[in-house]
Structures are given as structure tokens and as C-alpha cells.
Amino acid sequence: MRKTTIITWALVPVIVILGYLLYAGIKKNIDTAENIKKTEAKVIERLKEIREVQKWFLLSNGRYCGSWDSLTNFIKNGTIYIVEKKETIIQRPANQSHLGDSVRVTYDTLGRENVQKYLFPADKYPSFNPDNISRVPTCDIEDFEKPASCKDCQFLLYAGKLKKGNVLVDVLEVIDPCPVDIARKESNANRKRKFLRFGSREEVTTTGNWED
Description:
By secondary structure, the protein is an alpha+beta fold. It is built from three helices and five strands. It is elongated and about 105 Å long.
């Protein structure tokens, strides 16, 4: 047997092993990325729920809620007034047609409903639990290693006032301090790569950084 043939056959197991390791490494990266995507989808869904509740809290109380206990109580026991908006077009007289038509807006209160029943009806949210509104879904993963920023498995909640010119406006920020994606850092310059969040302490916005 020629020497080159012997070397070729000797290299076959090495090539097979290297090929398997390469495949396994690629598959692991794909699986990790898929798991991150699924988990972050749950976190984003929870953030959207919080944002919706805070929107109605603001409408009901004139401010955002800065306490998880108070927000949970609002979901359980608060009420929302159901209002119907009507617009009526009033045509200008013929001799004033150059001014255009005007619109009269009226609001009719149709009734009121419990916050949880209105925002999270059982048929659409069968597993919704208001006591978990502050909990980060990431922490429900059994083998999740909590980073140092993750305390009590709760979202970080800030509600306050921001001065814009001579006016104080309400601002809200909610942050997930328990990222499953270790590449997410608060030090990242790109807001999309910071911890998942919505709102801001420094801007009048409730946009999520997954939406930017």
C-alpha cells in the first residue's frame, strides 16, 4: 500500500470528527438563537401588556403608575369607562365654502368595565394572571442563569415627570433586567441591543426598543 493511501485513510476519522464538531457547533448556535427569539417574544408580549395597562392607568388617574402593587390592584379592581367618539361634519354655508367644512367631535360614555375583563378577556388570555404582571418570563426557564442585573425577577419600573420647556409631562420606562441574550448590555450604544424595554426617562415616548 502506498504511503499516500495510508495517510489518506488515516485522515478519514479526523475529517469525520472535525465535520461533526463543525455541524454540532453550527446547530448549537442555531438552537440558541431560536431559543433566545422565543423567550424574548414572551418578554415583549409581557411588556406590551404592561404598556397597555399603564396607558389606561394614565387615562384614569392622570399619571403613570410607579408601583407594581398598585398596578396589579388596578388590573384586579380598577374600572375603565367605555367611551364612544363621534364626529359630525358641519358644512359651511354656500357663501363661506372657501373656508371648508368643520368637524364637531363628541364623546358618549357607554358604561364602565373591570380593567382585567376589558383588557385581558378570558377567551383571549386564558392564562393571564395579574399577580405576574411584574415578573420577567425569562426567570421561568429552569436552567436560566440570572445575571447580576436580575433581582427578584421583576421588571424595572420608573414613572415620573419630565420638564419640557415650562411644562411637566408624564414619562414611563419599563426594563427587563434579566436578558436571556447575553449580548444585550446596557452599555451598548445601539438602543436595540440594550436590555428589552419600552418608554424612556428622558423622552416623551412609550415605544419599545424592539420597535425602533
